Amino acid sequence: MKSNQSKKKILLTGASGSVGYQVLQQLIGKTTEYAIVVFDKKSRRTEKLFAPYKNRIEIVYGDISDKESVQQIGKKFNAAIHLAALIPPFADEHPDLALKVNTTGTKYLIETLEASSPNVFFLYSSSVSVYGDRLKNPEIRVGDALMASEGDEYAKTKIASEKIIQASSLDWSIFRLTAIMGGHKMSKLMFHMPLKTSMEIATPRDTARAFVNAIDKRTALSKRIFNLGGGEKMRLSYKELLTRSFDIFGLGEVDFPPYTFADINFHCGYYMDGDDLEKIVTFQQDTLESYFDEQRKTVSSLQRIFTSLLKKPIKWIMAKQSEPLNAVRNQSKQEMLRYFGRIIS
After folding, report:
1. Cα 128 from Cα 179, distance rounded (Å)
2. For residue 333, what pLDDT band results from cuts at 50, 70 and 90?
């Protein structure tokens, strides 16, 4: 067994998120190789979440958007996996806070590491949202133009953060994550995506594996940007995704009123160069079938029957959250242009 002095020191931010928690669990399995430091915001939830590991990792509680708080991390790290971020829909509803956490927080972290760990390998999670609306051209490659969709404040923070990272003195690699499906709750954001959208999903487990495996692949990944997706076997349309998910939960058909889903102005597509990352870090293990099998395990037979009996009122309540539908009902010209590209009377 290696001594703490000989182990690689790994910094992980955002360990309380769906991908971050998977990263933490996978790193815990490698404590003979790595000394792990988690930086996260203190709350009842995070304290409970990290409690099982408190004797195997170092936990530093702080606020990524506060410079002095970030500076307390200190230490000399061999690698840093930066996943901390505010995500949609909250990020889009609070753009100033999203900028403060996602972009300014990234800047503070980089400045701290430049001072204390100039030789650290900085791994960053960006997003497919940076490519904007790809409904008509769903085949995405790393060199494609970056253009956040209207109202996508989250994407703007990711684009800005990428620039900060590339301008830093650190060695880095950026992974642009596709739609990460698993462990998330339905929100009004589901209606922002057109049903015809082409999707290539990935699970938190596979995504985490990419980051963990990347730690020891520095030479191949250095100063490069990659698209991280589930591969060809994880591709489907958004309508297909909802259809299969609704069936699992007992919600029946995807039969909402007209204009419940937007026609334009979201993101997602197929990563045509996703194999570039897979060849280096070998992380794609899940398939659509394994993903949906996992979904089924979360729903009891009783829950499915209960949901099936109430599916109409449940979907009515869901549709009330649809901002595209509300834009049409309220005859909001600006919002209709955003979601449909036209005025609907």
Report:
1. 7
2. very high
Q: What is the spatial distance between Cα 327 and Cα 336, in angstroms, rounded to a whole number?
A: 6
Where would I find the H helices in the chain? 18-28, 44-50, 67-71, 90-93, 95-98, 105-116, 153-167, 204-214, 218-221, 238-249, 275-281, 288-297, 301-309, 311-320, 323-329, 333-340
pTM above 0.70, yes or no: yes
Helices (H) and strands (E) in the chain, counts: 16, 12
The first and second tokens of residue 219, run together, are 């030479």
Q: What is the pLDDT of residues 22-73, one digit of tens each?
A: 999 999 999 899 999 999 999 999 999 999 998 999 999 999 999 999 999 9
Nearest to 129 by CA among 85, 96, 184, 171: 85
Q: For 130, list phi and psi in degrees, rounded to 5.
A: -65, -20
Distance between CA atoms of residues 182 and 322, nearest Å: 22
- Interatomic CA distance for residues 3 and 331, integer angstroms: 66
Examine residue 89 and say whether the peptide bond preceding it is cis (omega within 30 degrees of 0): yes
Quickly tell me which residue has 């067994």 as its tokens: 1
- Identify the structural domains of the chain with CATH numbers, from first to last: 8-235+260-286 (3.40.50.720)
pLDDT of residue 3: 54
